[in-house]
Amino acid sequence: MDEQLGFVESAATLSQVPTGSADLATRQGADTSLIRPVASADEVLAAWRQFQDVKRSLLTLEDYQDIQGRPRIKKSGWRKIAAAFGISDALLREERREVESPAGRHFVWEVSARAIAPNGRYADAVGSCASTERRFAHLEHDVRSTAHTRAKNRAIADLVGGGELSAEEIVDGDAWEPVRPAPAESAAARPAPRPLTRDPAPSSPTADAVTDTQLRAIRAHLRRTGIDESRACARAAVASLEALTRRAAAELLAALSRQPNAA
Q: Higher-confidence residue: 198 or 89?
């Protein structure tokens, strides 16, 4: 998803190579040495398990957003993780750019942020947001704050080795499509009106069936909570999740959303 507008990781800082031959000879051993772990394998694994434990214990359902069938950590969750590990952040750069495109004129906010650990280690990241991504309630403020959120989320995730995209970074279907004016329709292109009938055709039997989006969301909650699928089917009184109606699926999702994360 890094190909989407504004989600580009910052490049590593490059050191200047010494020009003097004496300096180059002095540093030759350091330049060619292997990069080694800062701790033993057991210590690294223990630290990673601790990070996963913090996520399970600290984050609640409100800190996740289900996107394309997978729960993604939102801004609130990454801020909790930052607080738990003593991570601070700093704004490095922000810029507002005007952009001309076939869809019209719009603007983009680009933000660079740094997440800093108590031991001095840090990670830089960039986040961007365009005014055409979706319909914003407060256009200028919301576009800028979204760019800030994306940059800080990515910096924190990179610093702790989370390796996952935050909810605010992911483009999720039509809700994030650029807003474009509808093309003008000529009178010749308009379809002829259909005559009304007294007995309209009955609706499709699958019109009230559970949607693929609902099924993905239900299974994501089942993985999160550790609840067996057969148990969920028994609660909804169906043989399988595919037999749910849209209304029953919505009720099951509401019930699952109140369940805590699996231990």
A: 89
- CA–centroid distance for 125 within its chain: 15
Residues 44 and 110 in one domain: yes
Residues 214 and 157 in one domain: no
Report the alpha-carbon distance of residue 152 to residue 111 in Å, rounded: 9
Burial of 244 (0-12, 13-18, 19+ CB in 10 A): buried
Cα(183)–Cα(103) distance, rounded to whole angstroms? 11
Tell me how far apart the alpha carbons of residues 109 and 2 are, in angstroms, rounded to a whole number.
Answer: 17
- Residue 100: helix, strand or coil by DSSP? strand
> Tokens in use for 244?
């749910």
> Parallel, antiparallel, or unpaired for β 88-101 and 104-116?
antiparallel
Which residues, at least 6 apart from 258, have a Cβ–Cβ distance to it below 8 Å? 61
* Domain match, 176 and 217 both: no
My answer on whether 118 and 4 are in the same domain is yes
Among the listed residues 234, 247, 52, the one whose alpha carbon sits nearest the alpha carbon of residue 161: 52
- Taking Cα atoms as reference points, which of 131, 130, 134, 129 lies closest to residue 175? 134
Rg (CA), the chain: 25
Arithmetic mean of pLDDT, 15-27: 44
Q: Note the pTM of the prediction, 2 decimals.
A: 0.52
Of 135, 83, 67, 144, nearest to 109 (Cα)?
144
**Rounded mean pLDDT of 112-125?**
94
Residue 232: name the closest of 257, 205, 211 by CA.
Answer: 257
Spatial CB neighbours of 85, under 8 Å, sequence gap ≥ 6 = 54, 117, 118, 160
Residues with Cβ < 8 Å from 77, sequence gap 6 or more?
55, 59, 63, 64
